[in-house]
Amino acid sequence: MATHATNNVPGHSVSVRAQLERTAAIGAVAGVGAALVMAMYAMIAAATYQNSGFFTPLYHIASSLTSPDAMMASMERAMSGSYFYFTPGPAVVGVVIHMMVGAAYGAILALIARLTRLHGAWLIAAGAAYGLIVFAVSTWMGLPLAAAIFSGGDPISNMASMVGYPTFIVEHVLFGLAAATILLPVASRDWNRS
Questions:
Q1: Which of 75, 73, 20, 69 is nearest to 53 (CA)?
Q2: What are 82-133's pLDDT values in tens digits?
Q3: 118 with 112: CB under 8 angstroms?
Q4: Chain centroid to CA 126
Q5: pLDDT for 137 beyond 90
Q6: Buried-exposed string 92-104: b where 16+ CB fall within 10 A, e elsewhere
Q7: Element (DSSP H or E) covering residue 153
């Protein structure tokens, strides 16, 4: 079994494990960036056509570990026309959870892209498809499992239906597209040649 692979630099050899670790780290960064894009879409949707409050998506995510009180208060205030109810504790918890999950999914996408040597338009298309896969895995496995483990209840296990399936799908496709776009320079430069 080979433990080293060339890194396209004469006389320089890097272990396969090191390459994969670097790829996963790059993917994690891409996943955090894509999670930001996804969150902004979710927050804009919540404050506009969903009428549930700008910060409600963060409180919704946080309710996997905290009380859903902030989410409910945000939604109630939005119904009375106040769309920007903010409470820092649950907001920070929601951001941290969302970024950690985004980092994990981004690392997986990067590893898949590197191992299959995806780059260019194929990487972007794969990113969109990956977003749909992440939607399905999250909706029917990840969120119900998280709800059971952390006693998050219906707000977590039924997150996709509460948000609305069309919006939840768009959020995840945007995640995949954004992650792939962030990975594109590295993939085009390195992954199709190593």
A1: 75
A2: 999 999 999 999 999 999 999 999 999 999 999 999 999 999 999 999 999 9
A3: yes
A4: 15
A5: yes
A6: ebbbebbbebbbe
A7: none
